[in-house]
């Protein structure tokens, strides 16, 4: 079993680091870590260090011995961003969780025309906070040291601008009347950025498809079956991870 990951705001080199607050409470009272056990400290932005528990104090304070060499994980290439249409209920958090575990680098909530869920006012702020919290916790659970960025919700025009600047852009869309190219055989870049759009349960509208196609993002399909919006992004990300060599 790999060492548990804990998030710190500022990670400095040794000789000791005090983990307190919510992370310290989780380490001491939930994980019940003992002296001599290994931990990983990270800022979630690529800086990380392996440490060894020196002592646990009270219910929320862990003293960790940290080596002098704080490491920096390079940004992965190509960078993979998934534009995720807003699903119903808590399926949005499910999508964020599994895409984070898979290795996606950025997630963009998208208010598509056929989305039933609407992010407006306080509800939108709370929903975005949930997505970001989910990405953080899933990043820790999957032992990542560079967590995915979760952007603020975008409208279709903003998504089109994002697609236009990518080295590879596509929209997951299945249409029996107009067969799309398989994502499994699409020509992918060796580096740069990949941006993939996942539509809502009702599908991407013809108007949105036209806007995205004009921005350089044609439609692609995953396979013969139609996946739910909360799982399509994860399946596509796994395919891209394998094809780009990031899982090699």
What can you see in these coordinates?
The protein is an alpha/beta fold. The protein has six helices and 13 strands. It has helices at 21-30, 91-102, 121-141, 156-164, 206-214, 229-243, and strands at residues 5-7, 16-19, 38-42, 47-57, 61-65, 71-72, 79-85, 106-110, 149-150, 168-172, 181-182, 193-198, 219-221. α2 (91-102) packs parallel to α3 (121-141).
Uncertain spans: none
β-strand amount: 15-25%
Give me the Rg, rounded: 20 Å
**Share of helix among residues?**
25-40%
Mean pLDDT over the full residue set: 93
Q: How many E strands?
A: 13
Shape: elongated
Question: Would you tell me the structural class of the helices and strands?
Answer: alpha/beta
First-to-last CA distance? 21 Å
For the biggest sheet, the summary is: 7 strands, parallel
Order of helices and strands: EEHEEEEEHEHEHEEEHEH
Quick tags:
methyltransferase activity; 13 strands; alpha/beta; 248 residues; RsmE_MTase_dom; elongated; 6 helices; six-stranded mixed sheet
Give the SSE map:
Layout lengths: L4 E3 L8 E4 L1 H10 L7 E5 L4 E11 L3 E5 L5 E2 L6 E7 L5 H12 L3 E5 L10 H21 L7 E2 L5 H9 L3 E5 L8 E2 L10 E6 L7 H9 L4 E3 L7 H15 L5
Helix pairs in contact: 2-3, 2-6, 4-5
EC number: 2.1.1.193
Protein name: Ribosomal RNA small subunit methyltransferase E
GO biological process, one term: methylation
């Amino acid at each position: 079993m790999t060492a548990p990951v804990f998030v710190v705001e500022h990670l400095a080199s040794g000789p000791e680091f005090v983990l307190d607050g919510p992370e310290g409470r989780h380490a001491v009272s939930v994980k019940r870590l003992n002296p001599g056990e290994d931990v990983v400290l990270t800022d979630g932005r690529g800086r990380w260090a392996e440490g060894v528990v020196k002592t646990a104090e009270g219910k929320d304070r862990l003293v960790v011995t940290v080596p002098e060499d704080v490491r920096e994980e390079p940004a992965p290439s190509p960078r993979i961003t998934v534009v995720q249409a807003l699903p119903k209920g808590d399926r949005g958090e499910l999508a964020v969780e599994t895409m984070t575990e898979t290795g996606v680098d950025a997630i963009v909530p998208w208010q598509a025309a056929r989305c039933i869920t609407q992010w407006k006012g306080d509800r939108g702020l709370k929903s975005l906070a949930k997505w970001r919290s989910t990405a953080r916790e899933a990043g820790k659970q999957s032992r990542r040291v560079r967590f995915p960025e979760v952007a603020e919700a975008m409208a279709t025009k903003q998504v089109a601008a994002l697609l236009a600047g990518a080295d590879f852009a596509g929209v997951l869309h299945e249409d029996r009347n107009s067969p799309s190219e398989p994502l499994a055989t699409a020509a992918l870049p060796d580096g740069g950025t990949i941006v993939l759009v996942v539509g809502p349960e009702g599908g991407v509208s013809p108007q949105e498809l036209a806007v995205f196609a004009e921005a350089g993002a044609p439609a692609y399909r995953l396979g013969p079956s139609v996946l739910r919006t909360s799982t399509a992004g994860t399946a596509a990300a796994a395919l891209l991870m394998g094809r780009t060599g990031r899982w090699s």
